[in-house]
Design a protein that fits this description.
This protein has 221 residues and is α/β, with parallel strands linked by helices. It has seven helices and seven strands. Strand 3 and strand 4 form a beta hairpin. It starts with 5 loop residues before the first strand and ends in a 13-residue tail after the last helix. It holds the Pfam family AIG1.
Length: 221
Amino acid sequence: MADSSEMTINLVVLGRTQTGKSAAGNSLLGSSDFESHCSPSSVTTCCSLGRSCRILGIIRRNGCELSLRVQVLDTPSYPHSALSTEQVRDTVRSALAHHFREEGLHLALLVLRADLPLCPDESDHTIQFIQELLGPTWKDFTAVLLTHADKAAEAGFSEEAYLHSASSTLLSLLSSVQHKYIFLDNQKSIIKEERAIVLRKLLNFIRQNNYQVLLLKHSKE
């Protein structure tokens, strides 16, 4: 990356049905690559990769501006209304290895709804799922996206007040991933300036991890 005028970051979005992970992926890409709408059943049934255009004005290195490209892997929800846990896990694991085998994964984005409480059982199952996908170093390569932040704001919660009132389960999860979290508004399409802020935060998480990448294999270890 240091020898190029362009940097690519590889991301995967993970989460439960109707958390807004496909919408979050579209926001990060600045596109509508992924199908996203309200539904009584899980919308995403297979993994798909979206790629952004070149993005300028986000990152500089050694005094020079780099162009940024974002790759986002959208995934079926866990749990899923039509697929078993094993089917989701194997599908995601295979897609991660297929798309990011050579370049590696920079961050897994665990998508949670800011307007819904995180319960212990849900958190335990989610963490186990991520551990099975990413392995023992999952904490270094995981950040939390809190979607529907607009609804929390409408209820009178600033980010600080929200975290002050959050469940111990959520606070424990955020602590385990070194407080790598971002609030995201799902009410409207993310504007260019807001997208730049989110991407800079993600790049900061990646920088804090010394630009390491997680290399993935097809084997079911």
